[in-house]
Automatic annotation (TrEMBL):
Residues annotated as domain MurNAc-LAA: 89-201
Enzyme class: hydrolase
Protein name stated in the entry: N-acetylmuramoyl-L-alanine amidase
Transmembrane segments: none
UniProt cross-references to InterPro entries, sorted A to Z: MurNAc-LAA_cat (IPR002508), N-acetylmuramoyl_amidase_3 (IPR050695)
SUPFAM superfamilies to which the protein is assigned, alphabetical: Zn-dependent exopeptidases (SSF53187)
Amino acid sequence: MKTNIKVLGILSTVLLLGLFAFRPLEEKKVIVIDAGHGGHDFGATMYGFQEKTISETIAKKVKALNKDSNIEIVLLREGDHFMELSERVSIINNLKPDLLISLHVNSSKNEESNGAEAYISSKKEFYEKSKENAEKIINGISGENLLKLKVTEAPFYMLKNSNCPAITLEMGFLSNNKDRVYLTSESGQNEIAAHILESIK
């Protein structure tokens, strides 16, 4: 009897170990971050600051801050070079990510215009996920330093043609003094990057 109980105990342990051993590993969440513009395409330029540089710097900070082994951050542009929109979309669709965030900086003739806003595609397949993620990110980065603006639908090329939930994130206005100081400061860029990362976990 004791032998039978012992054997059953060993079999139970083996079975449990087997279940854990063959349990599928949690799949990584893949987030593609597109630093807008690049190369000869400066984007918004004002007071010696360029959109392409700000977007690239913040994209790199998001990746550097990520310590979560279940999240993989892929940067589309890691240097100051021009990429066609079609080239970006081709890479995105080959990667099949869980989310695309295209980073940009706004500008306006009205220097009072300020705040962070996001754009998503009206594509039904990814609409809800795109909107949900866009709202999380906008809520995350806005606050004392950045006014919270809205999430709006837009027919942008990358949003329409990327086969995944996709967001164009305008991180503030280079034309607005308060936004510009925040966007171009080391502390501001670190905060924005940290809030973006926290919002996609």
